[in-house]
Amino acid sequence: MSATTLSLPHLLELQSLFVLQIEPGAGTLTQFLGTLVAGWLLFSFTAHVAATYVLGDVPWKRAFVVGVVPAIVTVALVRYNPLVIIAVGLLADFAAVHVVYHLKYRTAGLVVVMHYVVSLALVLLAANLLALLSTAPV
Description:
Blueprint: H1 8-18, H2 29-55, H3 60-76, H4 82-101, H5 105-134
Helix pairs in contact: 2-3, 2-5, 3-4, 4-5
């Protein structure tokens, strides 16, 4: 076989090297609820940060209503492709922000984009800190 031609099994082998596939395991009800509550708190905090940044001073209680929506979507769709989770989560987040904060579509979209950015920044920060701490000597 020459270096320029690859067969299908070779391509599938190469693809498996670059695709991270996570198979979530079955958990207990306590683990499920703990994940849901942790996601709810994270998304509520980031929703409040995003809404405050875009809208100014807003009641923090509204963020708890908005935060539960992406938390439920994330936990409910955990076995699906991450792109599906992100797409459905953004649409559900948009609907929640639009209804809870009584915003026009364009303003709600801006709050949702900021919510996604702040959430992604905090999750990446936490993941990198955990990765760094896992390499620390005992």
